[in-house]
């Protein structure tokens, strides 16, 4: 016989201000099978929990209903208390008297009546609750980090340093990401390559890190602790073991006029190339799309000059299948290019460039050796205009958000320009200066006060070319929206930061959510900024939203800790609130008819096939089966299954029916 | 008819199929389904305008399946039912040979399912004109009048489940109404319970019904329950642009999502 205990919480005054808790406790106490009913000011407090535990033992309770706040808040607390008193935690239910009652109603009798109803239906439910056991799943202690920018590098190193294996997958021929393209970095103006390169080398040499560059994730199966990833290792067309990285091939390749991606199109590279001198690994790749041999079937100059005979024209792509336990997504971001801006010439004007192009111009290793020369004719610009918020914070352009990094790098660019062209004039058009961050505002002030950068608050409406000059038309809103025209030699647009190409496809492959701008979505904007909605998959860096290096690195370390915490356990314990497809004796085996319509509806790919075979090994029936490791207990399949063959532990059809019937006063 | 008999005999004699599901004239002169396992008996096969039953319902019955590979005389609704059954993994294409009958009664030779698919694609797939007219009349009623119409119809329902038994897509070994833990749908016939049963059946066939009308014909008390599922045929078409049973690899509209799905039905 059921012996149910009911514990009504006042939640300070949150509940008791509108609900007559005494009356609820008394009325419920009179219900059949309720062995104990009481009220208390704070059930979640230590004495409150002790009260529950004592009552469980004293009244030999077979189930309890804690009537308090939302289960999202304290269900774990009370289930743990129940377990400590020897009651299976899943025989503890919570009635939400706060969000569902006291907070949304006035103080009156009806509110108290509603509270009684809410508790009553849960009393009926808990009577038929089953004791459930947690699900245990083993953990594969190898992490996959996708993307080898600074965020991916940091995460990989941090995880590797906790003693766990890391697979780092980077789709371009070298790790480094956007940071490798930067000249100097705010707010300290230290050289980007100088601080990045040692980290890249550390990755390459770390015994716990396996690096796959020029590789991409092909598919992902499985669940937290137990993923299987397929990685496509694209053919580099060289044998990495034989190649010494001497680079002779890259100097002899006759195909020399391919726009250089690393230099943002402001220089050329051959068909066999290493993206930049500090590349890791320092081994070239053949760009088959542009290589004369792949186009015309003739050439092979690289093969002839290679001293170690490392060129492999017929190398195929390789698909590697690897078991992993956790994933860090660190695929970074990209920026809008100048062709996104019709008002600034659609990218037609050679001297209207974007921020990354400016980084390359300012970089000592860049196409101009660090001299600020305008791309059209190589002349030093005497008058330069920087346009912040190009595309960002502009709902009309579909980008309502602030790209966060542009204010800072624009100040940096203006400063770098002034340091190199002392007599030049730098103007910055801005909407607001957003320089929150340690030493950030000081940095911007320095640009204005020490380097005399001319900050103009207002937007630029158009830019057009006239007599070899760029006419920049804007307004100065601090001077009463006065129209303003600057005749410039060069314009740098701080274009909006956007999701990296392929982010959406990757999100779909990994089954993680992404936002309307295709940035990866965090599980909770405040409390779970590093987690995704898919257990075991974490985020680091600018793949979540545009971020600067310090933010990317902090998040990367955060993600690494999440992975390390996961790997500190040999087995994972999961809540047993998962779906199950019924089973019964042969010849029926299950009422499931194997239509598998539930399979396509499951958002977590948790539904598998199970075959029943006869003695001769012939399949006599195929039915659905839930993978308990993957199922998140969303219940979609339960609602879909026509023959009602699926049920959800903790929320069975029977339990739901009982609740509804209790509400209709059938019990 | 002659061609049909020849084809059936050939299939049976060459042991390509073990049974032919078709129509014959019964003792009272009415058309009835027949299951022929002996080629000598194939002469009784007929096909004329009275042969409208959806024979696909037998393809999932174990009493018929036990014979082995099945041949079936199939009009368009039967072909489409076969497509749904294959899509929903209730029938293996290797286990069935379709003796197609075209709209004007010609025997069609389908080398395989793909050929049949091409044939179906060329056909008119909407509800039959008569039913479409009835639906149009019904849809002119206001909400209250419609509700009253159906309540009156459902009050006649004796819960014999003939509608369900006659529908090829109602192949569940245990129907939801037979589930008694909990008993969501009451066993006895009463107004609320009847309404629940019909809503449940209609929803289970939403996007799966192929407009054969068999359920309505099977009903002993004349409830036009096929109009419910046929209305959903229209809805599936207007919301998602699909008709059921046009390929052997379809997923049902209610169990798939596409980013461009209309959401106008969300209120
Ligand atoms: C013009 C400009 C100037 C800047 N200046 C500064 C500065 O001075 N100081 C500062 O703090 N920050 C600066 N930033 C910001 C800085 O670039 C970023 O914070 C940083 O690059 C973010 O690192 P990340 O690793 O998250 O992304 P990224 O640097 O974008 O790296 C992502 C990596 O993932 C790889 N990848 C992408 N997709 C896949 C895939 N599907 N599979 C495998 N690999 C993939 C990419 O190839 C890349 O290597 C600047 C940014 C810009 C645009
Ligand atoms: S569980 Fe239900 S929906 Fe899934 S295959 Fe079985 S019968 Fe179909
Ligand atoms: S409950 Fe949700 S997650 Fe679990 S199997 Fe069903 S649909 Fe998939
Ligand atoms: S009504 Fe639904 S549950 Fe019943 S047999 Fe038809 S499809 Fe299956
Ligand atoms: S008309 Fe009736 S019998 Fe025919 S498929 Fe539709 S629901 Fe089934
Ligand atoms: S066949 Fe007619 S009477 Fe029988 S259950 Fe269906 S609607 Fe009701």
Give a topology summary.
The complex is a heterodimer of chains A (667) and B (267).
Chain A: E1 4-9, H1 21-29, E2 34-40, H2 46-58, E3 63-68, H3 71-84, E4 92-96, H4 98-102, H5 109-127, E5 135-138, E6 142-146, H6 150-161, E7 165-169, E8 184-185, E9 190-191, H7 192-205, E10 209-212, E11 215-223, E12 226-233, H8 248-252, E13 258-259, E14 268-269, E15 272-273, E16 285-286, H9 292-296, H10 301-305, E17 318-324, E18 326-329, E19 333-335, E20 352-354, H11 355-362, E21 383-390, H12 406-420, E22 425-430, H13 440-449, E23 454-457, E24 460-466, E25 469-476, E26 482-488, E27 490-495, E28 497-499, H14 503-510, E29 537-539, H15 549-567, E30 571-574, E31 579-581, H16 597-601, E32 607-613, E33 619-626, H17 636-640, E34 646-648, H18 653-663
Parallel strand pairs in A: 1-2, 1-3, 3-4, 6-7, 6-18, 7-10, 18-29, 20-27, 21-22, 21-27, 22-23
Antiparallel strand pairs in A: 5-30, 8-9, 11-12, 12-17, 13-14, 15-16, 19-28, 24-25, 25-26, 31-34, 32-33
Helix pairs in contact in A: 1-5, 2-3, 5-18, 6-7, 6-15, 11-12, 12-13
Chain B: H1 2-13, E1 19-25, E2 31-36, H2 62-65, E3 70-74, H3 76-87, E4 96-101, E5 107-109, H4 113-121, H5 129-139, H6 143-154, H7 162-166, H8 191-205, H9 214-218, H10 226-240
Parallel strand pairs in B: 1-3, 3-4
Antiparallel strand pairs in B: 1-2, 4-5
The complex binds flavin-adenine dinucleotide and iron/sulfur cluster (5 copies).
The site of one iron/sulfur cluster (SF4) has 15 residues of chain A, from helix 17.
Helix content of chain B: 25-40%
- CATH H-level superfamily title of the largest domain in chain A: FAD/NAD(P)-binding domain
Q: Given the structure, what is the number of helices of chain A? A: 18
Number of domains of chain A: 5
Largest sheet of chain A: 5 strands, parallel
Structural class by helix and strand composition of chain B: alpha/beta
Assembly category: heterodimer
Q: What is the H/E string of chain B?
A: HEEHEHEEHHHHHHH
CATH hierarchy, class of the largest domain in chain A: Alpha Beta
Largest sheet geometry of chain B: 5 strands, mixed
């Amino acid at each position: 016989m059921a012996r149910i205990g009911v514990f009504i919480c006042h939640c300070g005054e949150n509940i008791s201000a509108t609900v007559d808790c005494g009356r609820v406790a008394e009325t419920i106490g009179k219900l059949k099978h309720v062995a104990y009913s009481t009220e208390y000011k704070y059930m979640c407090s230590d004495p409150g929990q002790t009260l529950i535990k004592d009552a469980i033992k004293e009244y030999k309770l077979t189930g309890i209903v804690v009537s308090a706040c939302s289960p999202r808040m304290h269900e774990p607390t009370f289930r743990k208390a129940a377990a400590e008193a020897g009651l299976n935690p899943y025989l503890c239910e919570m009635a939400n008297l706060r969000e569902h009652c006291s907070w949304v109603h006035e103080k009156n009798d009806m509110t108290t009546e509603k509270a009684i109803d809410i508790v009553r239906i849960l009393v009926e439910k808990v009577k038929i609750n089953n004791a459930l056991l947690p699900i245990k799943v083993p953990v594969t202690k190898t992490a996959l980090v996708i993307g080898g920018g600074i965020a991916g590098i940091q995460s990989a190193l941090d995880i590797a340093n906790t003693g766990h294996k890391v697979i780092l997958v980077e789709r371009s021929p070298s790790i480094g990401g956007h940071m490798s393209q930067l000249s100097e970095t705010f707010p300290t103006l230290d050289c980007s390559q100088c601080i990045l390169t040692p980290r890249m080398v550390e990755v390459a040499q770390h015994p716990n890190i396996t690096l796959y560059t020029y590789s991409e994730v092909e598919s992902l199966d499985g669940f937290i602790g137990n993923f299987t990833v397929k990685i496509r290792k694209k053919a580099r067309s060289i044998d990495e073991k034989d190649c010494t990285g001497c680079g002779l091939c890259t100097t002899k390749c006759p195909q020399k006029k391919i726009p250089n991606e690393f230099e943002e199109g402001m220089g050329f590279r051959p068909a066999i190339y290493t993206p930049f001198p500090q590349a890791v690994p320092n081994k070239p790749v053949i760009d088959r799309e542009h290589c004369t041999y792949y186009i015309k079937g003739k050439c092979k100059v690289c093969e002839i000059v290679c001293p170690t005979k490392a060129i492999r024209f017929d190398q195929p792509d390789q698909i590697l299948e690897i078991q992993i336990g956790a994933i860090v997504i660190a695929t970074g971001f990209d920026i809008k290019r100048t062709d996104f801006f019709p008002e600034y010439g659609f990218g037609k004007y050679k001297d209207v460039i974007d921020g990354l192009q400016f980084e390359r111009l300012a970089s000592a290793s860049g196409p101009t050796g660090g001299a600020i020369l305008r791309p059209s004719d190589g002349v030093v610009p005497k008058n330069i205009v920087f346009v912040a918020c190009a595309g960002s914070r502009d709902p009309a352009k579909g980008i309502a958000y602030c790209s966060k990094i542009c204010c800072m790098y624009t100040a940096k660019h203006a400063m770098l320009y002034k340091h190199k062209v002392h007599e030049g004039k730098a103007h910055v058009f801005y909407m607001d200066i957003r320089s929150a961050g340690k030493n950030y505002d000081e940095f911007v002030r320095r640009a204005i006060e020490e380097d005399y950068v001319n900050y103009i608050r207002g937007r630029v409406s158009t830019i057009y070319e006239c007599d070899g000059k760029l006419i920049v038309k804007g307004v100065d809103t601090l001077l009463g929206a006065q129209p303003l025209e600057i005749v410039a030699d060069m314009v740098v647009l701080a274009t909006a930061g956007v999701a990296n190409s392929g982010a959406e496809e990757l999100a779909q492959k990994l089954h993680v959510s992404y936002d309307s701008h295709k940035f990866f979505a965090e599980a909770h904007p405040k409390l779970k900024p590093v987690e995704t909605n898919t257990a075991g998959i974490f985020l680091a860096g600018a793949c979540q939203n545009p971020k600067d290096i310090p933010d990317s690195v902090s998040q990367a370390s955060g993600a690494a800790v999440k992975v390390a915490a996961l790997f500190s356990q040999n087995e994972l314990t999961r809540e047993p609130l998962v779906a199950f497809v019924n089973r019964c004796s042969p010849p029926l085996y299950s009422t499931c008819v194997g239509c598998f319509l539930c399979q396509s509806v499951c958002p977590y790919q948790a539904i598998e096939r199970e075959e029943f075979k006869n003695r001769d090994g012939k399949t006599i029936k195929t039915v659905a089966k839930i993978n308990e490791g993957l199922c998140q207990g969303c219940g979609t399949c339960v609602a879909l299954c026509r023959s009602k063959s699926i049920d959800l532990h903790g929320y069975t059809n029977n339990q739901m029916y009982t609740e509804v019937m209790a509400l209709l006063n059938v019990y | 008819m002659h061609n049909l008999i020849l084809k059936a005999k050939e299939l049976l004699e060459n042991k390509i199929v073990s049974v032919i599901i078709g129509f014959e004239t019964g003792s009272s002169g009415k058309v009835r389904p027949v299951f022929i396992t002996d080629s000598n008996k194939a002469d009784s096969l007929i096909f004329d305008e009275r042969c409208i039953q959806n024979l696909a319902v037998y393809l999932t019955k174990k009493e018929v399946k036990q014979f082995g590979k099945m041949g079936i005389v199939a009009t368009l609704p039967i072909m489409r039912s076969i497509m749904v059954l294959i899509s929903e993994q209730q029938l293996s294409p290797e286990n069935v040979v379709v003796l197609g009958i075209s709209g004007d009664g010609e025997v069609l030779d389908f080398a395989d399912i793909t050929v049949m698919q091409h044939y179906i694609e060329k056909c008119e797939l909407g509800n039959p004109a008569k039913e479409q007219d009835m639906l149009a009349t019904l849809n002119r009623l206001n909400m209250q009048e419609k509700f009253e119409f159906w309540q009156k119809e459902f009050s006649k329902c004796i819960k014999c489940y003939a509608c369900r038994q006659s529908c090829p897509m109602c192949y569940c070994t245990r129907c939801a109404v037979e589930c008694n833990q909990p008993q969501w749908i009451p066993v006895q016939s009463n107004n609320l319970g009847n309404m629940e049963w019909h809503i449940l059946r209609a929803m289970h066939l939403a996007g799966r019904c192929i407009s054969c009308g068999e359920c309505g014909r099977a009903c002993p008390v004349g409830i036009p329950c096929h109009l419910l599922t046929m209305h959903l045929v229209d809805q599936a078409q207007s919301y998602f642009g699909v008709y059921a049973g046009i390929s052997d690899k379809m997923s049902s509209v209610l169990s798939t999502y596409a980013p461009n799905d209309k959401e106008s039905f969300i209120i």
